[in-house]
Amino acid sequence: MANEAKGGHMSWDDGWWAYAFIAIAGWLATDLWRWLGVLAGNRLREDSEALNWVRAVATALVAAVVAKLILYPTGILEQSPLWLRLGAIAAGTLAFFVFRQKPAIGIGTAIAALGIGLFLLGF
Amino acid sequence: MDVGQSEGTGRDWFLAGMRGIASLPAIILMLSFVGFCAFTAQAGVPVEQVVFMTGIVWALPAKVILVGSIMSGANLLTAFIAVTLSSIRLMPMVAALIPEIRTSRTPTWLLLLLSHFVAITAWVFAMERIQTVPRQHRIAFFAGFGVTLVLANMLLVAIVYRFVAEFPPIIAGCLFFLTPVYFLASIWSSARHPVIYVALVIGLIAGPFFYWLAPEFDILLAGVGGGTLAWVVERAWRMKQRAGT
Fold this sequence. Notes:
The structure holds two protein chains of two kinds. Helices cover 72% and strands 0% of the residues of chain A. In chain A, helix 4 runs antiparallel to helix 5. By secondary structure, chain A is an all-alpha fold. Chain B is an all-alpha fold. Chain B folds into two domains: 10-190, no CATH class; 193-245, no CATH class. Chain B has helices at residues 10-18, 24-43, 47-56, 60-71, 76-86, 90-101, 108-114, 120-129, 138-164, 169-190, 194-213, 218-244. In chain B, helix 6 (90-101) runs parallel beside helix 8 (120-129) and helix 11 (194-213) packs antiparallel against helix 12 (218-244). The longest helix of chain B is centred in the middle third of the chain and has 27 residues, at 138-164. Classes of the chains: A mainly alpha, B mainly alpha. At the A-B interface, helix 2, helix 3, helix 4 and helix 5 of A face helix 2, helix 3, helix 4, helix 5 and helix 6 of B. Chain B: It comes from Pararhizobium antarcticum.
């Protein structure tokens, strides 16, 4: 079996094993929490300290992913300077807070700053 | 959206939910999916698997982590742990939404089925607008939005995949950047608990720190370590506030 030979690893051209890998590590790993959320829905106390901790861990996880995407991007952005990416985030953050925390404004400003920077750098 | 009408049939509300595809959160999400598509194309993921992943995993951070784990050569267990830890946030999200959308007669199997459509965008959209929908039609409204959003993005990914590789570098770069920027803005603006802000800031610092310290388990450590620190800090601050007043 392909998967046994690979010791549980996968590559994109593994056929059924690639789909099984996505189903287990992707679908099961996410829907598990959605199902638990349904079951907990009525019983969970919104003001409990345990839920507060879960929220903190969950948010920090996504934030860590975001930081990695900004600092260590793949593809074309890998060749862009770090100061440009951080500068675009800073510009977006500033616009976001100046304009009453509207996501569209923060997102638009950050993307525009990045685009202009890439253009000026000759990308 | 016809939120002004107080009644109507379940079909009307399903259609009202479907029209949510033209809302700002849905449009930003679709642009983020074009960016994700560019990311997967560059990572060498075949288009069939990208479409499969979009439908079956749905949550964008989970998919980014899944693809990242596979690229770094993680085995099934490591990838499962990384993805599942990033998805814990879905549990309180779903748990908070369920009491809002169900009636006493809603079967549990239907809620389990519909919970699949919960991810950041659908959740923010639903929590914002569900109050304007008559309770007996909330399931139909959420289903209309959730199902449409997932199917539209599966179709979108299937169509744009072949073009993203030929995008001008500036467009490809901007689309890729949309994902982290969108997460930052949407998490901050949809946060309803002070601990979210603290955790977001600490997580942004903890991510690179643990990447430098232990690159194999960085996301996991940043989540548990950074999140716990954020919880301790926010709790201490809250206790102090309470004692001070």
